Amino acid sequence: MHENSPVLTATRRERVGSRYSQRIRQAGGLPAVVYGHGEAPVAIAVDAKEAITCLSRGDKVFQIQFKGESTAQVVLVKELQFDHLGTNVVHADFARVDLEERVSVRVAVHLVGEAVGLKTTGTVLMHPTNEIEIECKVANLPDYLEVNIAGLEAGGSLHARDIPLPLPTMKLLSDPGQIVAQIVSTQLQGGETTAEATQVAGVSQPEVITERKHEEG
Question: Does residue 142 lie in a domain region?
């Protein structure tokens, strides 16, 4: 069992569909489906507050514990569905996994340190992507990847290939040349602010665990 993965207590849903899912959400639950490993898909409901708290901090591997059963199932978050505003999680898909199984997942990248390039007047830090895709064993899946940008100079860039992976058995799947962080100048000659800098100023995006899609049903 994956000792560090959160445990979500689940109940089986006898009925499915948007109307019944809405009732579950109104009662504080989150509709979900568990599938994979040659077993039939199972419609379930978990506590919404507990699940969303875990998802928001980047957890991807969970133990699904059904009420009245002693053995929990290890699952990986495969997809989240959001409401029409794209803000609230309304449904989750979980895939059964084995801890020794290799999977491809997107992992958040955390930048630490103060880039030396930011000491240059008129520069800002761009963070165009905050996650990369890697392949690793489920048991080794990191919550996030940390990279120190203290040495990043003005005009310099940090690429996906520059991010150290915790274990040699992990494999980078993202484009190695993908820019993760970059120090750019916000001024033209004469001190005018560039249009690009205006856009860059607001670059600080929340982690997106999976691609969003429309609400169930």
Answer: yes
d(CA 29, CA 91): 10
Query: 1-10, 144-153, 170-179 — which is least confidently predicted?
Result: 1-10
The pLDDT value recorded for residue 5 is 84
Residues 115 and 26 reside in one and the same domain: no
Tokens of 44: 């379930």
Full residue range of the structural domain in which residue 184 is found: 103-200
Report yes or no on 151 lying in a domain.
yes
In this predicted structure, which of 89-93, 168-172, 202-206 has the lowest mean pLDDT? 202-206
Tell me what pLDDT residue 28 has: 94
User: What are 69-74's contacts with CB under 8 Å, separation 24+?
Assistant: 72/1, 72/7, 73/34, 74/1, 74/2, 74/5, 74/98, 74/99, 74/138
Which comes out higher in pLDDT, residue 68 or 103? 103
Q: Measured between alpha carbons, how far is 9 from 129 in angstroms, rounded to an integer?
A: 33
Count of domains observed in the chain: 2
